[in-house]
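New to this. Please check this protein:
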Amino acid sequence: MDINNNILKFAKNIGKKKRIILPESFDTRVLNAATMIVRDNIASVILPTNNKKKLIDMASSIGIDLSEIEIVNIDVEILDKNKICEFFNARKEKKIDDCDKINLFNDYLYFSMMYLKSGKCDACVCGAAYDTADVLRASFNIIGTSKNVKIVSSYFIMVPPTDNCVIKYPIIFADCAVNPEPNVFGLRDIAVSSVESFRKTFPNRNINVSMLSFSTKGSSNSKSLLKIKDATDLVKNYFKNLNDNIVNVDGELQFDASIIQNIGHKKAPNSQVAGNANILIFPDLNSGNIGYKIAERLGRFTAIGPILQGLLYPVSDLSRGSSSEDIYLTSAIVLNHI
């Protein structure tokens, strides 16, 4: 399955009139990606700057033509005043002085997040230069979470190699980059967000969510399993209340029982998810981060992400090692979340 072409095709279908802001306009990888996005009609691109001429000259010096890119000067006056007031009113106890208020939105990242919150674009793709903590802080404080969840999380699209005999289509791993020790409600939110992410990226596929553990259906007794069992019940009830019969959820399930049919049927014979899982929810960041890297390095899976989820508006969290091609593809994935 050519996941890249599928994602780009879907993004083109919904994204011709969409606008993405790329805060890190000072990074040549981002400039290259911006021209690729516009060239392939994925979306319109906005680059913020505090010196338009300097940006254009810098791009020109390395052979990048920004004539098709919208460049906006960083200026608080073009942002939604009501949204800015809401932001500072929610932080009255922090006693932010007037100077700090002005300087905050002179920052490329915070300006771009408020530009998105102001309704001037549809998505924000960042993280090539800013670290994860910066991106999370700005997105959580300015954008906020969606109405269905209370935490921001992340997911990876894990694309199997063509010769994999177990998994033939891309699956989702979550959360592998954000929440170290999610509680019961955090696991519930991660699963709910992951279902929405999967649905938007792969709209025609059935959804089978496995709440991962070292135990399958009580094969082990441990207090640590209570969190996973309780979270599974919360996720099941959430989709049951929505009358969403397309989403199957089960747990606790071991990894092999989740993805290998004969093992799943043996260990959990009454489960619709066992052996068929395509969304894998890890119990904590340790297991999630280790798991995706084992799949990537030993299993030769391609790991696309991490991609933020659970936010009110689409925001990415790129790896600081991202290439222009990575930024380009991530922009297309983020468009699918609109």
